[in-house]
Amino acid sequence: MNYQSPGGAAALDAGMNFEIPEAVAEFRSVTRVLVDDLLPLEREFQETGVVPPQVRQTLIKNGYFALAFPEEYGGLGMGALAQCVVQAELARLPPQFWTELRPLMGPAAKNILNHASAEQKARLVPGMISGDIPIAFGLTEPHCGSDLGSMRTTATRNVDGWLLNGSKTFISNAKNAKTLVVYAYTDKAAGPRGGISAFLLEASTPGYRVDGVIPLMGTATPGVYEISFSDVQLPPDSLLGEEGKAFHYALEGLNEGRLNVGATALGMGEYALELAVDQAKIRPAFGGFIADLQAIRHMIANMATEMRAARLMLLDACWRFDQGEKRRELASMAKLFATEAGSRAVDSAVQIFGGYGYCRGFAVERLYRDIRITRIYEGSSEIQRNTISREILR
């Protein structure tokens, strides 16, 4: 069973080392070694459905939970560029191995870092870095994803703080989360841009429930979750940032989250390319190997070209983000291109593997299931095109 590359892609990998800051390149190399050490554990995971506990322990011990947090809180203080490079390496592992890292590098953590009070940060951030306080991001609802204006969850002010009612769906890590960032209308009349607020919810609060799991074709085990709030009493200090400003917080967090998803797709696509190259060199056909066939060579050429373009686009968008050039269209372009190019690369890899590429136990089959969601979450490809065109035509 081919859970990982049999090796031999060193020349290909060397071609992926674009000029990046020395510290980032070093962390990338360290991550590549760590991933290579963890990849053999995929067999056990695929057989049992349980992520070996040493995976989480290894990621925490080596600082990956601290990657996106400022040094003043005990984090590594790495920006969007470093996170992109590291996430692309981690994406060679099954996503279940790094499920907890997504909220820590995505909108939930960014909302807390950018808008939480000093007291809220002191209470949460050290535990997020240590792994003692897993978090989740509660934005999507059963009837609306990207359309925030259709949100039905509400938070009504009362003498004790806020009364939260509603539901969310497709929430990653909800089963394990101890704290959630939850979005709700606090003033329907003000509309989404002035009436949506964000709150910090402790999972132990009465009235909050994890209602069920939604099994997925890949990415998360056992899946993502449906959650609900029935007269959940939140204290006054549960408000995250300013009342009515969360619409802007969502856009702010999603911008960086989209770069992260693009990096995930990049890593999966590059890994698929590595596997396809190795397979083409050893799979016999017509007295030689399929790597001798022009059709296969052209597939590999297209895969390599698109993945190189995706990497350059992502690195450029991340570098500009770190310089303060936080343009929405750049993040959307990077996510759109990387997720679609990565999906094409994985599809080609399955084709190169032939029937084996469709069999459980081969990494390309797992990649085929896992990469599909990257064109949907953190804004679908269609939403990215809307964003790109709107910003260009503005």
From TrEMBL:
Keyword Oxidoreductase: yes
Domain of life: Bacteria
Pfam families: Acyl-CoA_dh_1, Acyl-CoA_dh_M, Acyl-CoA_dh_N
Signal peptide: none
GO terms for MF: acyl-CoA dehydrogenase activity; flavin adenine dinucleotide binding
Domain (Acyl-CoA oxidase/dehydrogenase middle): residue spans on this chain: 136-232
Annotated ranges, domain Acyl-CoA dehydrogenase/oxidase N-terminal: 27-132
Name of the molecule in the record: Acyl-CoA dehydrogenase
Organism: Muricoccus roseus
